[in-house]
């Protein structure tokens, strides 16, 4: 069944029609959504039911894929272990020099009180011989604790990735989001030790998210910060939850995106700095994607004495949106990988470069293995 889904997607791709294949973290099902024509749709009020794909720049429109056909299959392939990658990355001296200088500019701006934190990134070009469908299957095999996807629209392009970060999950009025910041390599350590730079960065992100959504939710709760592993990396994660006022998902998305984990603090100033200085267009990297207003049936037990009414059905409205990290864009025989990191006043430029090298291995692992 799984291979039939891949074949269906390949036919859709050859016919130049939009589709997305994806699997949620720690789930067995792979979902395929297919649109029957090549129309390019957008969403504004976030009241429609479909799959959304949003760019980093929130001033640009969010793409909406309508669901003309939905296929759900069980992923059948054996999973591999998420051991640290041994991929050797050839460093481009010019790219390294540019990124280190970019980080230095960011640190100088922070010290001059332009902003508190900024997230700076770069793009890596890699020649590939594998098809996007093979790459997607390798993402599924290697990263079962990430949102793995393959998204295509003939008028936009082809993207795929394995992202560990939730933008938000909503079930009726229940809302959950997270702050994810701080990075260090996984080297077999089951209990990583975090420095002040990472802890302060995480605290900044958590504080921002909590304040940003506070006007739109009640019963706001903030969890303890924990260490979570994503492939060959460790991150710090804090969960934030509450009950939405009037199911205000559009207002919450507007408040959150782009989050300080992918842009910086404050949002307006750091976004302007990123666009002015990164020297490339992020497009959909650090945007978000996922299910919008999906309807799910929920069965509950009824009165046992009445066999004709032993269960009754309710419909819940759910949305699951993920930040588009650890991703790549594929164009013919080239893949473009996007990586970045949070910069604070305590950042060390060479270490920030090394962090982007470590993060690039998530995608390079499936490209070059």
TrEMBL record:
<dbReference type="InterPro" id="IPR005801">
    <property type="entry name" value="ADC_synthase"/>
</dbReference>
<feature type="domain" description="Chorismate-utilising enzyme C-terminal">
    <location>
        <begin position="316"/>
        <end position="359"/>
    </location>
</feature>
<feature type="domain" description="Chorismate-utilising enzyme C-terminal">
    <location>
        <begin position="98"/>
        <end position="296"/>
    </location>
</feature>
<dbReference type="InterPro" id="IPR015890">
    <property type="entry name" value="Chorismate_C"/>
</dbReference>
<dbReference type="Pfam" id="PF00425">
    <property type="entry name" value="Chorismate_bind"/>
</dbReference>
<protein>
    <submittedName>
        <fullName>Isochorismate synthase</fullName>
    </submittedName>
</protein>
């Amino acid at each position: 069944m799984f291979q039939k889904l891949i074949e269906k997607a390949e036919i859709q791709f050859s016919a130049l029609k939009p589709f997305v294949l994806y699997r949620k973290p720690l789930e067995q099902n792979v979902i395929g959504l297919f649109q029957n024509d090549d129309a390019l749709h957008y969403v504004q009020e976030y009241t429609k039911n479909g799959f959304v794909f949003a760019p980093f720049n929130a001033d640009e429109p969010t793409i909406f894929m309508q669901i003309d056909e939905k296929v759900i299959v069980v992923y059948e392939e054996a999973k591999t272990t998420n051991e640290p990658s041994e991929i050797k990355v050839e460093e481009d001296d010019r790219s390294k020099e540019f990124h280190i200088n970019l980080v230095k500019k960011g640190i100088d701006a922070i010290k001059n009180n332009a902003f508190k934190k900024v997230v700076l990134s770069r793009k890596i070009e890699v020649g590939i011989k594998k098809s996007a469908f093979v790459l997607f299957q390798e993402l599924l095999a290697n990263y079962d604790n990430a949102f793995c996807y393959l998204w295509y629209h003939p008028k936009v392009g082809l993207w795929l990735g394995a992202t560990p970060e939730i933008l938000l999950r909503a079930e009726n009025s229940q809302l959950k989001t997270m702050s994810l910041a701080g990075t260090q390599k996984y080297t077999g350590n089951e209990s990583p030790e975090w420095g002040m730079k990472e802890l302060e960065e995480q605290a900044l992100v958590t504080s921002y998210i909590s304040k940003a959504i506070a006007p739109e939710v009640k019963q706001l709760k903030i969890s303890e910060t924990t260490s979570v592993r994503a492939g060959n990396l460790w991150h710090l994660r804090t969960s934030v939850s509450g009950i939405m006022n009037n199911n205000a998902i559009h207002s919450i998305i507007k408040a959150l995106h782009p989050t300080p984990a992918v842009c910086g603090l404050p949002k307006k100033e750091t976004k302007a700095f990123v666009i002015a200085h990164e020297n490339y267009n992020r497009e959909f990297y650090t945007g978000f994607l996922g299910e919008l207003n999906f309807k799910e049936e929920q069965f509950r037990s009824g009165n046992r004495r009445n066999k004709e009414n032993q269960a009754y059905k309710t419909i819940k409205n759910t949305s699951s949106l993920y930040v588009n990290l650890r991703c790549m864009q594929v164009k013919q025989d080239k893949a473009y990988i996007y990586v970045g990191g949070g910069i604070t006043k305590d950042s060390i430029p060479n270490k920030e470069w090394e962090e982007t090298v470590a993060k690039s291995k998530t995608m390079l692992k499936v490209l070059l293995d």
